[in-house]
Design brief:
Layout (H helix, E strand, L loop, with lengths): L17 E2 L3 H7 L2 H13 L2 E2 H8 L3 H13 L3 E4 L8 E4 L3 E2 L9 H28 L4 H6 L11 H20 L38
Parallel strand pairs: 1-5
Antiparallel strand pairs: 2-4, 3-4
Helix pairs in contact: 1-5, 2-4, 3-4
Length: about 210
């Protein structure tokens, strides 16, 4: 997720915690299993390695290793446990913000790799959503959309637009219940995936940039 820009919160809104990982932490997170684990802990709340292993189809040893990696870089932390037998984990933040790298190098390479890892996960989620769409209650089908809007813009105006969209989404998030906590009976986690990019093939890229 690209970084939202903080705006002044209303009197009834809450703070939304976020983490801005450095290159090393981002490299640890850009693993499909860890991305799924972090998402589960954020959306569904605290869990044990055994519970996550069952949901992911992994053994508890592999799950524990991935959880330790997430904890090492500050993505998750210990959660209060009801017994000494099981170790419970919870997400430390609700969102991950990634600052675009400004020049080539390790940070740029990791930025690109992380974007690809996130995209792969999102494609899977969108496919599952499409498969479930026909069976959704009417009110949730009305709330869902698969829009594709192309607008001629300069780079500056495009950045301003994505910034405004992120601000709007963050405002909605601040006014909603926190992720991972019990929700009212009529409320479920609602996913908004924001992809904004120049229409493919319309800008020089790669080797084309060096052509005279």
């Amino acid at each position: 997720m690209k970084p939202p820009v903080p705006t002044q919160a209303s009197a009834t809104s809450r703070n939304v915690s976020e983490i801005v990982p450095d290159v090393t932490a981002l490299k640890a997170l850009a693993h499909p299993v860890r991305l799924r684990m972090l998402g589960m802990l954020r959306i569904d709340g605290p869990a044990t390695a055994t519970q996550l292993a069952a949901r992911l189809g992994l053994n508890s040893g592999a799950t524990s290793y991935h959880l330790r990696q997430l904890a090492q870089y500050g993505f998750i932390e210990d959660a209060p446990a009801t017994s000494r037998r099981d170790r419970w984990w919870k997400a430390s933040h609700e969102i991950t913000s990634v600052r675009p790298a400004e020049s080539e190098g390790e940070a740029f390479d990791m930025d690109v790799a992380f974007a690809q890892a996130i995209l792969s996960q999102q494609v899977g989620q969108m496919q599952k959503a499409a498969e479930e769409y026909a069976e959704l209650p009417l009110e949730w089908r009305k709330a869902s959309t698969a829009s594709d809007i192309v607008i001629p813009l300069t780079a500056e105006k495009a950045e301003a637009l994505t910034r405004r969209l992120n601000e709007f989404l963050m405002e909605a998030m601040r006014e909603a219940p926190a992720l991972g906590e019990p929700l009212p009976a009529d409320t479920v986690p609602f996913t908004v995936m924001l992809h904004a990019f120049p229409y493919p093939g319309r800008l020089p890229h790669g080797e084309e940039e060096s052509e005279p």
